Amino acid sequence: MTIGPTAVVGRVRRAHGIKGELVVALETDAPDAIFAPGARVIVGTPDGDLAPDARTGRLVELVVHAARPFQDGLLVFFTGIADRTEAEKWRGRSLLVPVSELEPPAEGELWAHELPGMRVVDPRGDLIGDVHGYYELPQGLVLEIETPRGLRDVPFNDAFVQAFDRDARVITLDAPGGLLE
Hints:
By secondary structure, the protein is mainly beta. The protein contains two helices and twelve strands; from the N terminus they run ββαβββαβββββββ.
């Protein structure tokens, strides 16, 4: 089965209770649509890559039975996960959907999965490096930028990012002196 590019929409934190509910940390702005009853998600690795079943080689899909708000995320019942023992097997896994099934980002926005590989330039247009990856902190998203001097971490926020061009795959970064040293 070929599904094309995927986006991480949630991460399973842990099992909850004895009936198979999972605590899901959200990585989507549309949780009501993504985790609606009957919707399906694809199970991925903790790093957000696709994770085919080791025995069958097929992607593992979970179908949402029910979801409700819980803390900063959701409690989700998936069809086929009926107890805590089964739910524990999913801890730490990412939940993905094909990008083709998502609403495109609004003007001036992009998906986090688009960041790796983007060029990073300074306000004069000089190359700083390329986005190697990213990670989430409570304060927000942090870019890992591969520079000639190694990996550098820079917050992806208005204080540092002047602009980005999604089509050209370029981020303009105004980093204070010393941040990239």
